[in-house]
Model the fold of this input.
Amino acid sequence: MLPIQILSSFVVAASAIAPDVSSTLSNILANTDQSPLYTYPTDLTRGIVPGHQKALHSHNDYWRDIPFYSALSVGAVSVEADVWLVNGTLHVSIVPRYPARKQYDLNLKPKIGHEVSALTNARTFDSLYIQPILDTLRRQNPSSPFVTTPTKNGVFDTAGTQTLYLWVDVKTDGETTWPAVISALEPLRQGGWLSTVNSTAITYNPVTVIGTGNTPLDQIQNLTSRDYFYDGPIPYLNSTFSNITSLVSPICSTDFMPQFGTINGTSFNSTQLALLRSQVAVAHSKGIMVRYWDLPGWPTSTRNGVWRQLYNEGVDLINVDDLIAGAGFSDESNYW
Done:
C-alpha cells in the first residue's frame, strides 16, 4: 500500500468519528461545486499545528497502528523508530537482543520492531519512515508555475520551517547497524532534506536525524561534516560526556525513572525539581535541547502534571505515548 493510501485510510477512519465539517455543509459541497476550489497542492497537512506550541515526541512511534502518519496528524514534531539489522532473507526471531558484533549483514535493510519477534518483511525502516516522510515532503514542495525557485518546506503546511526530528534507536550491534542506517537515509539525503553540520554550525532542514540506543558515538563525533547526530546522555553532560557539544548532540535524552523516581501526586518534590532544573540548565548552557522518556503514564493526573511541569521548566520535547492526550484532543488530558 502506498504511503498516501495509508494516510487516506487513517483520515477517513478519523473523519468517521469526528467529521471536519458539519453534515449539512458536507451535503452542500457534495451537491454543488465539484471543482478544485477547496483543495491546494500542499494541503496534505493543512490545519495541523505542530505541537500546539508544545513540541511532542511520539515515543515508540513504530508501535502505533499507522507509524509516522499518526504522529503527523496531531502535530508531533518528533518520531522514533527502533531498528534491528537482521542477517539473510530469513529473519531469525531468536536473535539475542544485544547480539555479538559482526553477526549481521550490512547490505540488508534495517527492520523495525521493539523485539525481534515483532519483525516482518513488510515493516522496514524504509517502508514505515523513509518513504512516507519523502512522500510528504514531495507533496509539501510540489512543482508549480507559481514557484520560481526550489522550496524546502517541512512536513507541516502550517509551519514550513519546522524540522521533523527522526530518532533512530539502534537495537542490534551499533558498529555494524549504524552504517546501514546511514545508507538507508540516502533518499532523504539525495533530496537535500536532511539537516547537516560542519565544524561550526548546524543547518536545519526538514528532517533532523538523531541516533540513539546502540548508536556508536565515535561514528558521529569524529566526523565534522555529516547529516546525522547523536543522542547524548543528559545526566553526564557535565561529567563523563562533558565534551559533547550541540554540534554532536543538538538534543539529549535520558530515562525519567532512574533520575527522579516516583512522582507522588501531580508535581515534582523539591529534590526532584532541583535535579530537573540543574540538568536542564547544564544542557541549555551548551545549546543542547532535552527530552525525558518513559514518563509516568498512570494515573492520568500524574501524567498530565509531569507533562505540564516538564514543559514549564523548559524541557524541549515532551515525550508522549498517548498522542491524542498529549496533543490535547482528549477530555482526560485537560490539555495538561
User: Anything to note?
Assistant: Residues 170 and 313 are 29 Å apart (CA to CA).
